[in-house]
Amino acid sequence: MSPFPAGASPNAAGPYCGHCGQPREENAREGSPGDASHRRKDADDGGSLPPSSAHLRCASRLHLEPPRFCGHCARRLKVQVTPLGWWAACSRHGVTTYPASEP
Amino acid sequence: MTATVHNWPILETARAQVLERGMGLTEDQLVEVLTLPDEALPQALELAHRVRLRHCGEDVEVEGIVSIKTGGCPEDCHFCSQSGLFDSPVRGVWLDIPELVKAAKETAATGATEFCIVAAVRGPDIKLMNQVKFAIDRINEEVDINIACSLGMLTQRQVDQLAGWGVHRYNHNLETARSFFPQVVTTHTYEERLGTCAMVKAAGMELCCGALLGMGESLGQRAELAAQLAALEPHEVPLNFLNPRPGTPLENQGIMDGKDALRAIAAFRLAMPKTVLRYAGGRELTLGDLGTREGLLGGINAVIVGNYLTTLGRPATADLNLLVDLNMPIRELQKTL
Ligand code: SF4
Ligand SMILES: [Zn+2]
Ligand SMILES: [Zn+2]
Between the N and C ends of chain B, which has fewer C-beta atoms within 10 Å? Predict the structure, then answer.
């Protein structure tokens, strides 16, 4: 069971991965296997997965942790986790909460 | 017709020593438990469960934890995404008091009797102590729950203040064995940690002192840690399994094997028959749903419900439903006061 529904995180809609902060599509279009130069060094696939699946593990991680990067601009988010929820704030794109409510 | 059950000598010893007499296993004995083959694991867990039932009872203590100050810590604990010394994506943030009270209310609504306020600091400064005092007062006004704190290393004056404010339990983990500690933390010493633990106990607060397994320590060091914790006689031991965090020195450490984690649960229970042994962070990755259940039938008698400080846990309902399934009542508030 996922702690939050798909789409609840601010990364779900934007062009950037909420877990590693790298472009979602760029990896698929421009990367080539073995070329990890465009990825953050903390991208947790270690560069080992083919570019098109580079964020699959990120996506699975986002079931067990809140997003850390804004999906719209890749800024690092301010994140507060509480026992039953979390909120994540981008200085430009505002706050996302789970469950959806006031932060 | 009965199935043949191998009698593992260390488990026979543990039955007499721990189950019958309530005396924890020694470090050498714990190595034997931690090196039992997989086929012995069900028996080890079953014995640990019986020890827990006999010496702690059938109820389970439920706790919620929340970070009042996240990130930007000056210490270098190599597993921690909140250290300001690593290139971790976790940003600094303070939780305001209304949010903290709301979190305490939500935690109490799950049936939890414990609410732990945690800060990512070497030790608290005056600003943090004032904030914590204010938080404790507001929570006490509005919520029926025991308040615990985890604010790093304390001075004697701070210990006395927290005890005076009614903090009934203080968390300060050993994390790992003394012999492995310098490979994990260089900005403070094991002795400093022990010093805070000793002051907490002397002031009459319950000591919560935990472990983080799977950081590359040997099985011998796991046994060493369990024995060192047992020597402290903590009221509670939260058991964490490493969740390798991006940007930390341990980010490439693999996830601990589930069977090793279960062996460790049994070993820690056999080291500390009367201690509250709590599932804490990392169990979702290391054990999954099935392993979570096995651990609760293998010595664990407390859980952190819902999320952790910077990562998410299983949904609270998943754990609470599991306790119903297992016929394990949640410990009631008055018993812990
Ligand atoms: S003292 Fe606590 S918050 Fe700071 S780095 Fe160590 S574990 Fe993290
Ligand atoms: Zn990613
Ligand atoms: Zn943004």
Answer: N
Q: Write down the pTM of the prediction.
A: 0.90
CATH number at residue B70: 3.20.20.70
The interface predicted TM-score (ipTM) is 0.93
Q: State whether A83 and B67 contact (CB < 8 Å).
A: no
Q: Of the candidates A42, A78, A80, which has its C-beta nearest B246's C-beta?
A: A42
In a domain, residue B171? The reply is yes
List the domain range (segments joined by +) for residue B15: 9-325
Is A64 among the domain residues?
yes
With respect to residue B267, please indicate whether it lies within any of the assigned structural domains: yes
CB B305 within 8 A of CB B110: yes
By three-state DSSP, how is residue A1 classified?
Answer: coil
Q: Does residue B65 sit within a domain?
A: yes
Q: State whether residue B89 sits within 8 Å of chain A by CB.
A: yes
* B260 phi and psi angles, rounded to 5 deg: -65, -40
Instruction: Give pLDDT tens digits for B166-218.
Output: 999 999 999 999 999 999 999 999 999 999 999 999 999 999 999 999 999 99
Q: Look at the alpha carbons of B1, B7, B13, B18 in this order and tell me if their dihedral is positive or negative.
A: negative
Alpha-carbon gap, residue A42 to B61, rounded angstroms: 36
Mutate to test the interface with B, among A20, A41, A82 (most CBs of B within 10 A): A82
Structural domain count, chain B: 1
Q: Select from A42, A78, A84 the Cβ nearest to the Cβ of B93.
A: A78
Of A3, A79, A82, the CB nearest to B66: A82
Q: Considering only CB atoms, which chain A residues are within 8 Å of B309?
A: 81
Domain count, chain A: 1
- Residue B245: CB partners within 8 Å, gap ≥ 6? B79, B80, B81, B88, B251
- Is residue A51 assigned to a domain? yes
Domain range for A35 is 26-76
Cβ contact, residue pair A84, B99, below 8 Å = no
Q: Nearest-CA distance from A7 to chain B in Å? A: 16
Ranges of beta strands (E only) in chain B are: 61-70, 93-94, 114-119, 146-150, 169-171, 206-208, 211-213, 236-241, 276-279, 302-304
> Do the domain assignments include residue A102?
no
Q: Which residue of B has its CA nearest to A19?
A: B89
Q: pLDDT per residue over B83-114, tens digit each?
A: 999 999 999 999 999 999 999 999 999 999 99
Query: Can you name the residues that pair with B304 across neighbouring β-strands?
Result: B63
The reply to whether B247 touches chain A by the CB within 8 Å rule is: yes
- Alpha carbon distance B40, B312 (integer Å): 32
